[in-house]
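Notes from hallway chat w/ T.B., transcribed later so I don't forget. T.B. wanted the structure written out for a chain they're using in a teaching module, and asked if we could keep both sequence and structure tokens in one place. Agreed to drop them here.
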Amino acid sequence: MTETTGTWEDPGRHEDEYRPAPARERTFAALPPVSGGAFARTWWGLAWLKALADSALDGQQVKQGRRHARAGAVGAVSVRPGRITAVVQDRDGTRHRCDVLLQELDGADWDRFLDLVADRAGHIAALLDHDMPPHLVEDAAAAGIELLPGIGDLEAECGCGAWDHCAHTAALCHQVARLLDEDPFVLLLMRGRGERELLEELQGRTASRAREAAEEWASSGQATEAVEADGIPAAEAYAARDILPPLPAPPPYVDEPGAAPALGGGTDPAPGVEVAALEFLISDTAARAQRLLADALSPGHADTRPQAPLTCAQDAVRLAAAGPEPRIVARLAAGSGRTAKGLALAVQAWEYGGAPALAVLEEEWTPEPAALARATAQLAAWDEDEPPPRLRHDRNRWTVIGADAQLRYGRDGRWWPYRKERGQWTPAGPAAEDPAAALAALRGGTEDSAASP
């Protein structure tokens, strides 16, 4: 994806005070044709396409536009506040300039948006990573700022003379969905702020807040007490770096965990203590220690996010998945409050995806409105070559009508396939980012039509 940018200048600014003005237009080169699959992978890209489907009066025009976009008929796309523009070519070679308009946010909206982003470090990190997490959009909506378009928000203008969305504006919208997948700042530019401009304003707000907090802290008389209680200033610690002893060498890599000792000796164990179970736990502990050490010595260890500790019930499933002897499995089932059949089902889920898969098996929950809207948009986003299945919805579970198949929506936004076997819903595969791929696991094949409305 290549692009060029345009800028504006302040004619009254003196030359030696000149700073490059924020980019208010980005032009993306025409994207190559694409065969099969979805036009949007991210949830915000899917929401953009759902807004198109909800706004257009003629669904056939939307489908024709999708075919135009697949064929590479959309030229370079220009994005600027309130408008996207491209030339779309029909099959007979006729070219049409088309525009799609989206309402810009006003100054008050941007002030509130920048304030809520500056208040949460996670929002700043997400934007810097070119990500648009759901909670950012939800926080903005709670503040009265609609970032994503809704029904009727995408207005169409086309040289073909159509007064509603035609195949040309629909093709442009599908192409923009691909751009949005790569960079959500495209959406923010349409709403009125370019990437550099937005980040500079955000940087100014966070720096100002940091100065105010530092001044308030210094004036409170706590600075001296904090130094005495918590250590010395960073500058002093850095100056002393040459007199500090070197860090110890890391431990060596261990190829295999050590063998568990045989717990014997002629003394009977205490009541309730089973020697075989203790030996199994020792072996498991050694294996986990070896894996943790290997992970700590790996090059990408610094980028690994810490995992939440397992509950006793979850750890019982993990231990059972290692395949201990039946007596130990029975103890794990009883200790975790499960039947033998329930533990076997939990192990099956664990093998597909660990703790998240186990949660999907054992928890039934109702998605929040925003999460439910995203799930509904994904379920509606089926390719035109593959009709969507008929589904019955109950909380976070969608059952395929007329088939022993079910899709379960996890708290992490992924879809898990389930199949009914002997009257019991059973995990049938790993999670997928879109429902079509999860359903493919149930059908024993692959789905090319992942998520395009």
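Follow-up for T.B.: Residues 6-21, 223-228, 445-453 have pLDDT under 50 and may be disordered. Might be a good example for the class.
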